[in-house]
């Protein structure tokens, strides 16, 4: 599985998504930059190294799809962690002069990356749908989110809880905070029926600590929840 898709975030701004699995990542390191190879060499644990490689691979696919006319290849792109831990992309070859923003996520051998031309705050997340405890919901969800979970049929709760959690993870990436910020600092409103295939994305929105609402898209497929957020507000219809 390796796909790319483009989602309009607002007029003039397109977010390109790429997905893939660990088995899609090429063997060897020819597709990595020299600096990326040095980073990989310091990753001691096999799972951490595999996740890192998967994240870089799908992110490079997203950047390439984001710049289709530039003729760039994976080795021409370097994706390194900033001081905050968030990834930053740099095109090493060719005439590309504009910045490209990226976000990366992986879960259980599946990777998701988002890329957009320009200095854009992006947040994407993929999470396997699984049962999470009441303690988890109490610790990380707002009162409104907990009420929404309680009103949901038990059979649908694992999907809903995973979706809310994934949206929070994406929102915290938009803020550049990650899990350094209390997950309850952002509040998620999701569709009444979150189940949707890739071509049936549904809108949701997240309220940030400064009370701004930002729009996002979510879908459910292959046992995973997928979410994408940008920092540019648009009008969205909540199902």
Summarize this structure briefly.
The chain is an alpha+beta fold and 239 residues long. The chain has helices spanning 34-41, 46-66, 134-140, 143-150, 157-174, and strands at residues 2-10, 13-21, 77-81, 87-91, 100-107, 110-117, 122-128, 187-189, 202-207, 213-221, 224-230.
How would you sum up this structure, described in words?
The chain is an alpha+beta fold and 239 residues long. The longest helix is centred in the N-terminal third of the chain and has 21 residues, at 46-66. The relative contact order is 0.14. A 5-stranded antiparallel sheet has the order 7-11-10-9-8, with helices on one face. A 4-stranded antiparallel sheet has the order 1-2-6-5, with helices on one face. Strands 3-4 form a two-stranded antiparallel sheet. Strand 1 and strand 2 (13-21) form a beta hairpin. It has 2 domains: 2-120, Alpha-Beta Complex (Ribosomal Protein L22, Chain A); 125-230, 4'-phosphopantetheinyl transferase domain (Ribosomal Protein L22, Chain A). The two termini are 29 Å apart. The protein is built from 5 helices and 11 strands.
């Amino acid at each position: 599985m390796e796909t790319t898709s483009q989602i309009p975030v607002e007029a003039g701004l397109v977010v390109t998504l790429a997905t893939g699995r660990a088995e899609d990542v090429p063997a060897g390191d020819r597709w990595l930059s020299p600096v990326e190879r040095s980073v990989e060499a310091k990753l001691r644990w096999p799972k951490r190294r595999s996740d890192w490689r998967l994240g870089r691979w799908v992110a490079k696919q997203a950047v390439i799809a984001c710049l289709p006319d530039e003729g760039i290849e994976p080795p021409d792109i370097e994706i390194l962690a900033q001081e905050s831990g968030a990834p930053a992309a740099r095109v090493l070859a060719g005439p590309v002069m504009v910045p490209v923003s990226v976000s990366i996520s992986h879960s259980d051998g599946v990777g998701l990356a988002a890329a957009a031309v320009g200095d854009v705050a992006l947040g994407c997340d993929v999470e396997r749908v699984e049962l999470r405890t009441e303690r988890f919901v109490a610790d990380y969800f707002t009162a409104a989110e907990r009420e929404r979970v309680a009103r949901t049929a038990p059979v649908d709760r694992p999907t809903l809880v995973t979706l809310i959690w994934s949206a929070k993870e994406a929102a915290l990436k938009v803020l550049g905070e990650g899990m350094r910020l209390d997950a309850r600092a952002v509040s998620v409103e999701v569709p009444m029926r979150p189940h949707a295939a890739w071509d049936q994305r549904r809108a949701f929105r997240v309220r940030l600590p400064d009370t701004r609402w930002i729009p996002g898209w979510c879908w459910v497929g292959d046992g995973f929840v997928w979410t994408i957020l940008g920092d540019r507000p648009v009008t969205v219809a909540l199902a």
